[in-house]
Fold this protein.
Amino acid sequence: MIVGAVVALAGCAAQPAKTQGNPTAESAPSATPVASKPIDFHTLSETKCPSSAASYQEWVAKFQSYALSKGKPDAVIQTAFAGVKENPEISDRASKQPEFVTPVWSYLDRAVSDERVTLGQQKYFENKALLAGIDHDYGVPPNIIMGIWGIETNFGSNFGDANVFEALTNLGYRANRETFACTELLAALDIVAKNNVPASRMVGSWAGAMGHPQFLPSNYLTLAVDRDGSGAPDLWDSVPDALASAANHLVDDGWQRNLPWGLEVKLPATFPYGEAELDLTQPIGHWKQLGVTRMDGSALPAWPGGTSILLLAGHRGPAFLITENFKVILKYNYSTSYALSVAHLGDRILGGRRIIAKWPVQEQPLSLEEREEVQTLLQARGHDVGKVDGVLGLKSRKAARGFQKELGWPQDGFINKALLEELRRRKSV
């Protein structure tokens, strides 16, 4: 989740993600990094995070000078950035995260594969006592921890192979993420200086996320846990530290003990689809009155607090009743595809069933250009989509509902080829 950081894609969330989740942690981009002569940062006197630079090496030198002004040890700075190179594909990767551009059913097929479920069950039984202890201490159940572990790094089999300092400097220089990059780079230097973690061990994803739970450096400093008592949190080689840290992260984000994430539900034909959205919460009784049931037709559980109906593929796809704890998973990585994959993988590992309702797999995904066109056309009709960036988040879905209302279509907020074609047709009239 941590991967998150992501470099938080603007417009996809109400708040930036703390981590970044992928079906498995991705390795560094394969393009050959661009080597150039480093600049001696001692000749500079930067006191602010660099907002611009004529070259990658200049950005690195400016940051090193800035880090020195913030009291980071000179020797640590020199060691950490030795050999870092420019890699343009890192910034490209930031704009193409699969959880934001892949249809949810395709994302789930990869993230919750039978092979991953089987491996997860093996890992669950190997760590059953540890998971029970974490559940007791933090109130985060094994299915959620296993889901995060599986989605983030395939249970520790893929941490990524990017130099964290190289990844973050490239994001700062090329991806317009300088504030994010500077924050995480300073934290990464602190990890090396204060936690006896060699700079050479600071390896992770292209977004700078590290270890089993894919923590960003800042998450490591504030949320990592030394559960095995070794003296410092070890997210790479200590499964107890890594899984307890993931639980601590969720608790810090508001995880509620003894509250499930949600379940798949059946909606009546008369369901008002305009009420199916993350930011619209109702008590369970409201959904019962509307005729929402479990998939077998039985009554919904008596969960406390607010709940929401989640439709990730419109009224023709599966529907889910979600609690506030699902939204906590979203804080780990603000992608509904990611959060559902975590929840569903964890359930499957502990014996839960597959999603019953069918996904509309016949729907062809929209390209980035088409998604931006949808946003532009909706905006031209007076609907607020936020930033036109191709990320179809909450504002875009609400805008789509407004247009669907004009058409007399079900107001499910699902943006597909049919909606785009209707927008084009109406523009030409």
Observations:
- Residues 1-18, 20-24 have pLDDT under 50 and may be disordered.
- The radius of gyration is 23 Å.
- The domain at 262-349 is CATH 1.10.530.10 (Lysozyme).
